[in-house]
Structures are given as C-alpha cells and as structure tokens.
Amino acid sequence: MANMSKKWIVLCTAAIATVYAAGYWDTESQATIPNAAADDQVLQAASSEPSINNTYKDGIYSGTGMNRRGSIQVTITIEQDRIMDVEISDFAMHYSESDIVGLPDEVTQSQSATVDNVSGATYSTAAFEDAVQDALAQAAIH
Amino acid sequence: MDTLSKAKLAMDTVIRIKVVPGHHRLLQEAEERINRAFMVFRSIEQACSRFDVNSELMRACRETGRPVPISPRLFEPLKFALAMAEVTDGAFDPTVGLAQEELGFNRHYLTGETARSTADRLASFRDIVLNERDRTLFLRTPLVIDLGAVAKGFAIDLAASELKDFAGFMIDAGGDLYAGGLNERGELWQVGIRHPIYKHSCLQTLDISNQSICTSGGYERKSPLMKGVHHIIDPKSRRSPNEWISCSIIAPFAMMADAFSTAAFLMNAENGERLIEQAGISGIMMSSNFRIVNVGGI
C-alpha cells in the first residue's frame, strides 16, 4: 500500500522536474515559433496537408458579451495566428477585493460566503462565448 | 494581509489564481509569478488539447506506425494517464477521445471549430507505446488521445511550483483546486465540496494546505447529441457511468487528484474505493442514490 502511494507521488514529482529541466519556460515566446514551424513542415510533408492560411491578424482585441448578470468583457491576444491569452477584463489584476466581482453565475454559483473556495465538476466557459466571439470577429481576416 | 488575484480563460474553463505574498514588497514579484503561472496553463493547453487540430497532441495523433518525438509537457501527463489505465485495467483509458468526439465533445471553446477524426474504434491504451529513452510516442493504430483527466491537474501542479515561495496561494481551475501555504488570515484554506444538486451548499468542508482537491461530476457538461450522456465517458460502453454523481479526491498533487477522481467515477463502488485507499489518498463521493461515501480517512 505504502509503495503504491509512493509510486504516484514519484510520477508527479518527476513529471514536474522533467518539464522544468527542458527549460523552455523562460524562452517560450522565442522558442515555440521556430519549433512549431519546423514541426509543421515535417508533419505536413508526411500528411500532405494544404499550407496554412492565417485566420487571425496578430494583435490585442477586446470583445463584449451579455450574460445574466450584465455585460462581460474579455481581452484576447493573438500571436502568430494563435490565441495566446484570454483575460477577463473586469477581472484584471486586482488587490484585496472580493474575488468574484464581475464574474458570471457559473463562477459565482460555485462559490460560497463561508469558505475560501469550492471544488466541483468543471464548469464551462459558455458564459463568455459571446464576448470571445466578438473579439475574434475583430481579429478575423476576411 | 493583501492578496493579489487574476482570472483568465484557459482549458475551456475559468482559471483564477490568488496569491498571499506575505510581505508588501513581494507584490511586484507576485504579479510576475501569477503571469508565469497563467503561461503554464496556456503552454500545457497548446501541447495537450484535443480540441485544437494544431496542438502537439493532435498532430502526434495523426501519425501511426512510426515513433514521433514529443515534448515533456505532453509526454509526462500521457505517461501518467497510461499508468492509471494500467492500474485500473482500462476502466480509465485515454484513448476515449474518439468516443468523446462522436458524442459531441469536440468543439473548441474559443474558435467554435469542431474536430472530427478518423480512427480505430477498437483501439485501447495498449496501442500507445511511450519510449522513455527516446522520448517518443508510437501509435499501433489510429486513435484519439484525451488527456482531459490529467492535463489540467498537471498544469495546476506546474503553476503551483511557480508560486510556492509565497506565504499562500490558491489556484482554482474551474473547480479543481490547489491550495498552497495559508490564506490571507494566516489560516488553513477552507475548501468546500460542492453539492451536486443544491449548488449553493456544500457536501462537506475541509481545511487544507499544500494539497489539491479535484472533483469529477456529470452535472456540468452534457452531451449535445445524446440524452443522459455527460463528458465522463466509459471507454468500453461509450456511455456515461452512473455509479456516482460526484467524486472528489484530496491528494498532494493536482494531477493525482484529477486522474483519480475521473478513474473512481468510472469504476464501481468497491473497485473505486480500493483504488483510492491503495494510493494512500482520500475521497468524498456521492453515489447515485445520494449516499455520501468518505474513503481513506477523512
């Protein structure tokens, strides 16, 4: 029993150490672009897929959508045609306020006044869909 | 004491990170570390997403019959998933991805694009071969790997290691949590287990530090195509199991809590409880007849 328990902990510890040893965290933005391009070429050659047509213009876009609590805004960052970041604008970095101001029901419902946090089945991002679509529409290459 | 928090969307859920820096002069560093922690989520998502045809995972899944080199951020969670498949004799199986696609769990939460793969419906985890020395993945037959039960947990663990030097932090990935150190009042983090039916109340509350709690439940994500099916799918029957309504696991790592909560959800009571006990962790579960079951000394 003790050995079984240790096995899983060793697996987790080693997994974290291995990813850090690969050392790409700090150089991610520089490293991923050439690597991704090289990988794509290799895999495309093998699967003879058509060449990539960009979907989005690089940049930062904000979008607004409605949910049951009112409007919600997201800010999306696109780099190299990939969605790199989706920030909930009303919930940018903030200090010592209530954690859940401006977040939709899915998020607040899962919280309770008496505890720090609540664990539950993973809720989806459906409440943010309109805001995300609004931002992506601005980024789209027509 | 001051805290710092931020929320973003990643991995089809809301990721919220809160840090108790411990000292005012650490606020700036806390902000930088929080940003790095979010980068971890994005990076693991780009490697492991089943919903993005250009993710490292999906590109690798299109290669059958030859070894493909893969990065540690895909290799490691896949290795963990295969270990779990082995110990549960396939009750948990990461090749469930094709069945998930066919039941409508194939839409990218940001772009709305849908993934449709052609693969072998009889494939199992035994058709996946990881080579530890060469760090390669070899698929014996076309299949779709789903890392939904490990990748988010792994991202939480990596994010936690970015924040471990602060007095306290909480990472909440849509209901899967890791609580580090102490909260802003200098106490253990008090975490509730959500009641699957009365959503504003808790089944139980726990005081934890340096532990993760992850919950698997069928009450948030239903199949758009088939009644009675939710996002946790039995790889053999291709339907949702109904032994449990909710399974929460408390473990020292989020990848463990994440994978064991899904695995237990897929098993019958006897096997699920034994799995949790043998791993030396704890579980709080609600069975389909609304009985609350505590496993592993809680």
From TrEMBL, chain A:
Where does the FMN-binding domain start and stop, copy by copy? 68-139
Q: What is the name of this protein?
A: FMN-binding protein
User: What SMART domains does the annotation carry?
Assistant: FMN_bind
Per UniProt, the keywords (alphabetical) are: Signal
InterPro entries xref list? FMN-bd
Entry-linked Pfam families: FMN_bind
Q: Where is the signal peptide?
A: 1-21
Automatic annotation (TrEMBL), chain B:
Gene3D superfamilies attached to this UniProt entry: ApbE-like domains (3.10.520.10)
The enzyme's first-digit EC class, named in words, is: transferase
**Matching InterPro entries:** ApbE, ApbE-like_sf
E.C. code: 2.7.1.180
A single GO molecular function, which one? transferase activity
The organism's place on the tree of life at top rank: Bacteria
Keywords assigned by UniProt?
Answer: FAD, Flavoprotein, Magnesium, Metal-binding, Transferase
Q: Which reaction does it catalyse?
A: L-threonyl-[protein] + FAD = FMN-L-threonyl-[protein] + AMP + H(+)
Q: Which cofactor does it need?
A: Mg(2+)
What's the family? Belongs to the ApbE family.
PANTHER family on file: FAD:PROTEIN FMN TRANSFERASE, THIAMINE BIOSYNTHESIS LIPOPROTEIN APBE
What protein name is recorded for this chain? FAD:protein FMN transferase
